[in-house]
Design a protein that fits this description.
Layout: E1 16-22, H1 28-41, E2 46-52, H2 56-66, E3 72-75
Parallel strand pairs: 1-2, 2-3
């Protein structure tokens, strides 16, 4: 979903948050916003989102609506 490219080597030696989320999860907007805050506040922290059970267009709209800038991949 993100225009950023994510490679697993980026996380080598750095703390990492992998946030699995579903578009119908009531708490996910809050926790994804928190992950975005962590991502924006630390240059050493790697954050990756994994959108479950969504079409690419639907997931993209959700990510854009929340203003997420960390890499997000789709896990259909």
């Amino acid at each position: 979903m993100s225009h950023n490219h994510f490679y697993t080597a980026q996380g080598s030696g750095h703390p990492m948050i992998v946030h699995f989320f579903s578009l119908d999860c009531a708490e996910c907007p809050r926790t994804l916003s928190a992950a975005q805050s962590f991502y924006g506040s630390s240059s050493d922290l790697v954050v990756v989102g994994v959108a479950e059970e969504a079409s690419p267009a639907t997931a993209r709209g959700f990510v854009d609506r929340l203003g997420l800038h960390f890499p997000v991949v789709l896990d259909a």
